[in-house]
Amino acid sequence: MVKVKRQVKKNSETNPTDCGKHTTLSVGQVAKRSGIAVSAVHFYEQKGLIQSRRNAGNQRRYHRDVLRRIAVIKTAQQVGVPLAKIAHALSSLPDNKAPNVEDWAHMSSLWLDDLNHRIDTLIALRDNLSNCIGCGCLSLHHCWLRNPGDTLSQQGCGARLIDPD
Amino acid sequence: MVKVKRQVKKNSETNPTDCGKHTTLSVGQVAKRSGIAVSAVHFYEQKGLIQSRRNAGNQRRYHRDVLRRIAVIKTAQQVGVPLAKIAHALSSLPDNKAPNVEDWAHMSSLWLDDLNHRIDTLIALRDNLSNCIGCGCLSLHHCWLRNPGDTLSQQGCGARLIDPD
DNA sequence: GCTTGACCTTAACCATGCTTGAGGTTTTAG
DNA sequence: CTAAAACCTCAAGCATGGTTAAGGTCAAGC
Fold first, then answer.
1. Distance from the Cα of residue A156 to its chain's centroid
2. Taking Cα atoms as reference points, which of A57, A56, A66, A58 lies closest to residue A24?
3. From the CA of A83, how many Å to the C1' of D12?
């Protein structure tokens, strides 16, 4: 890399208290404002979830939009979506451009479906826990918990009975 | 280990089609009937989630109760409980003895609390997704998604506004 | 008896989601 | 101008939850 002479004018893009709409964010600012570690910011960028440009000194400068992306990443993670899937969903957004409402709405509808599915699953699980274990039916052969997905082996005389106790 | 002469009488404990209540299970039988891999059975045993005895040939023999333990492990994992916590909960059960209904009920009540909490979180998340992203309020400064947990940095003039867009 | 499949142990490896460290450069503050 | 803080890259490390491989033993059936 060519070493560039220090620029005389102070670069407002790196001023931590600058509130201008046209400033970019350093990695440290992104970390602080999004509540994740600098290393996580690097990691997400490496994984393609976010993007940056470099300044003359090879330091990352982020578009402010990155904060929303990170908010979405964190949200999706709470829901249990793996990073690879999040990356895929985010990749449908325009690169380095502020996504519009429809862009986000489309993505969120994907999360919503996923979320609803997870919620349904957990509720089913809870009901089964309540009905099955709570009442002692765990010891009965037809208990869902004891035979989830009907994946019992089919051979042998005890195939449909895990443990009659 | 002392090498033991092969026993003359056929050991019914290893007969795959034996349905007697007093038989024990080999690791392969446990794997097949619980629907997990043999390596996973070994892994769980190594982590203290299940236990076995050894026969004369140093092979694992499981009490049939292990199937219920594994069912509980799988259930808890679906709920998102990490193995260490599951191990802790299982450790409250009597070792190598069939737990009674109260034992299971107590454990399941712990899972239930956890489950309910997760369900509540997911539902809150879903509602926020619907209300926040779906309607476009993601671009407003008070959006929960964009400022989760109020963890924004406090310095600078833009601290309470992630990105006014 | 002998072959074959199931089992044994130990150790290394995989994927995910990051963090930590080493060694060096850039930026900022005084 | 200089020192400190922030940043850079690359590599290794950690925790979780297992799987895979290597080299050897045991058990069941013919």
1. 45
2. A66
3. 22
**For every one of its 165 residues, what pLDDT tens digit does chain B have, with 9 covering 90 and above?**
333 333 333 344 444 444 444 589 999 999 999 999 999 999 999 999 999 999 999 999 999 889 988 988 998 888 778 999 899 888 877 665 566 677 777 777 777 887 787 788 778 777 776 665 544 444 444 455 555 443 332 322 222 323 322
Distances in Å between the Cα of B78 and the Cα atoms of A30, A111, B110, B150 are: 34, 19, 14, 30
What DSSP element (H or E) covers B60?
strand B60-61
- Asked whether the beta carbons of residue B122 and residue A104 sit closer than 8 angstroms, the reply is no
In angstroms, the CA A125 to CA B159 distance is: 41
Identify which of A68, A125, A155 has the shortest CB distance to residue B115: A125
Cβ-Cβ contacts under 8 Å, B130 against chain A? 108, 112
Q: Cβ separation of A80 and B75 shorter than 8 Å?
A: no
Nucleic strand D contacts from chain B, 86-105, CB < 7 Å: none
- Do B71 and A145 lie within an 8 Å CB cutoff? yes
Token pair of A92, please? 């449908």
- Which domains are assigned to chain A? 24-99 (1.10.1660.10)
The nucleotides of chain C lying under 7 Å from a protein CB are 6-10, 16-20, 25-29
Tell me the backbone φ, ψ of residue B53, rounded to 5 degrees: -110, 170
Q: Which two tokens stand for residue B130?
A: 């619907």
Beta-carbon contacts of A161 under 8 Å, excluding residues fewer than 6 positions away, are A141
